[in-house]
Amino acid sequence: MKQPAFELDSKFVGALPILNNVLKRLHFSQLLRRHLPLPDPRAKMAPAQALEVLTRNLILARVPLYAIREWARQVTPDLLGLESDSAQDLSDDRLGRALDRLFDVDRNAFLTEFVLHMIRVFQIDLEQFHNDSTSITLQGEYAEADGRRVRGKPTRVISHGFNKDHRPDLKQLLWILTVSADGVVPVLFKVADGNTEDSTTHIETWTTLRRLVGRPDFLYVADSKLCTGDNLQFIHSQSGYFVTVLPQSRKEDKLFKDWLQAHSADWKEIARRPNPIRKDGPWEIIMTVESPIPDANGFRLIWYHSSFKRERDSQSRQTAINRAWKALETIAEVLEGPRCRYRQREGVAKKAEEILRQAGASRWLQYDIEQIEEHAYRRKAGTPRFGHALATRNKDPLPSPLEADPGNDRI
């Protein structure tokens, strides 16, 4: 008897059941449909349905718009909220039109309602927030992305700026994200113009967080871009708290290091943790001391010392010294050769400075230039053997390194 033919149709499941459960608890679908304009009854797929598929794709796969239809065909339809044959309707044009509908939404109201509901459902602690920003690098000219208003709403300027991907030739936007210390949950984000200075975004971010939390006494943690007089004074004036990093360019950095040369700091151990690089390596010991020299605005300064960073800095320092020493010895051989192109003392000094600068060893290596006069004798053409001419030349050997001082670890 002939066996009935069958086809094996495999579908992707992955983390979709977990993600769907989270989205369900967040009431994401209901919230999206409530804020979006009413769909066109003639449309094959409502904008909210297309955006829900796009959201799942951004979280799990992040394929381009034109590839989402193919991705959806490989997924169990009901996990995407689709009918069995609805995936074919997910064209990039339809997804683009759905994003246009989302642009017209009052996104501030939408996100505020979404975040507040998330905080209540998952009971997120709001005592501490961490903020950071980065650049989103874009390819292309984007000539029309000049900040003009579109359908009554402001848009962002895509422009050149300080690119954190080290691509100053490309345009960018600035992405600002704030997460809770409890679970690293995103609670606030913003996209700013590409040429926005990071330090100018903190007052607005902190003010928005205050409205979200309902009080000012939470702890706001950010990198050195927060450490400006205007930012710190504003948060302090609003009875807020902050932790930030003092830039090395600030005079307080040099004042404390100079103070350490003449005083003994009372370092206190506050924590130990496993070696972050080697499992069998020594534990990292973290110590702190409060600076006797306050911030220029009167705020407390606390210095941290990491045993792991000290070891890492020591290795980097020795690598820089070895690199510079090797380069100096190489140039010394050139200077001793018969075809040396360095004839002036200034040229030798310039080359030595360049070597130390490129190796990053200027702080630890010193050099001295010794001018040695050599007498060379050669016969002059057309003279008897008993006659000779005396010629001299000056040689400027490469400065020999005199001292390699490891110096103090940077705090």
Topology record:
Elements: H1 16-25, H2 28-35, H3 47-60, H4 68-73, H5 92-103, H6 107-122, E1 128-138, E2 171-180, E3 186-192, H7 202-213, E4 219-221, H8 229-237, E5 241-243, H9 251-262, E6 268-273, E7 284-290, E8 302-306, H10 307-336, H11 345-359, E9 365-368, E10 372-378, E11 389-395, E12 400-404
Parallel strand pairs: 1-4, 4-5
Antiparallel strand pairs: 1-2, 2-3, 6-7, 7-8, 9-12, 10-11
Helix pairs in contact: 3-5, 10-11
What does this entry show, briefly?
Strands 3-2-1-4-5 form a five-stranded mixed sheet, with helices on one face.
CATH level 4 superfamily of the largest domain: Transposase Inhibitor Protein From Tn5, Chain A, domain 1
Q: How many alpha or pi helices? A: 11
Strand content: 15-25%
Uncertain stretches of 5 or more adjacent residues: 386-393, 403-411
pLDDT averaged over residues: 88
Number of strands: 12
Assign the structural class, choosing from mainly alpha, mainly beta, alpha/beta, alpha+beta, or little secondary structure.
alpha+beta
Q: What is the general shape?
A: extended
Radius of gyration: 33 Å
| Side-by-side strand order of the widest sheet | 3-2-1-4-5
Main CATH class of the largest domain: Alpha Beta
Count the domains: 3
Pfam families: DUF4277
Protein name: DUF4277 domain-containing protein
